[in-house]
Specification:
Length: 198
């Protein structure tokens, strides 16, 4: 016998080490209002704000209202889309407000991309197929650029340099070992710039 879970009974599939993701409450839509589903409203708001990277109550409610608008289907907010978007936002685990905004954009771009892909699969009109193909391509590129921006922000713009082949001539100097430094710091240190090939 197969049983299906109601949307309010969804369980985590993957084991996640962040307790805040599992403990954070769900978001529900009731009469065009956003409701944080938790017995203690203040604790629920705090848990959700921590999971979404929102700095305060205003940031949390602003982010949620934007996600509600982005979740709309036929100009009406859709609970399933909203739940998906909030869940994906939690899994990205934004650490600050900038990451929260970028993650919300990433989730919204993904939803828009999937909507376009669905429309593309359902049309036989060639001009519409071409238009939707362009839209899916642009949205996919935007998503990739957003992922790159998030990775850059999380690594504070640091780029790792790996030198795999290095030859040192007689009289030359080389440094051997594992180093993690910014490229601009390596270039300004005397002796190290000579050891790195151009």
């Amino acid at each position: 016998m197969t049983t299906s879970l109601a949307p309010s009974e969804t369980l985590p599939i993957a084991v996640n080490d962040r307790a805040a993701i599992i403990a954070s409450p769900k978001v529900k839509l009731r009469r065009r209002r956003i409701v944080i589903d938790h017995p203690d409203p203040h604790a629920g708001e705090k848990l959700l704000a921590d999971a979404l990277g929102a700095a305060d109550s205003d940031a949390l409610h602003g982010l949620l209202s934007q996600l509600v608008k982005a979740s709309a289907v036929a100009c009406k907010p859709e609970q399933g889309n909203l739940s998906f978007m909030v869940s994906m936002l939690k899994s990205i685990a934004p650490k600050d407000s900038l990451e929260a905004m970028l993650a919300a954009q990433m989730v919204s771009i993904h939803v828009a991309s999937m909507r376009c892909a669905c429309r593309l699969a359902c049309t036989d009109d060639v001009p519409q197929q071409e238009s939707l193909t362009r839209a899916v391509t642009r949205l996919s590129r935007t998503f990739a650029a957003q992922m790159e921006a998030l990775n850059r922000h999380r690594s504070n713009g640091a780029c790792a340099i790996t030198v795999q082949n290095l030859s040192v001539q007689d009289g030359g100097k080389a440094v051997v070992g594992h180093f993690t430094q910014h490229a601009n710091l390596i270039a300004t240190q005397p002796g190290l710039a000579d050891a790195i090939p151009a």
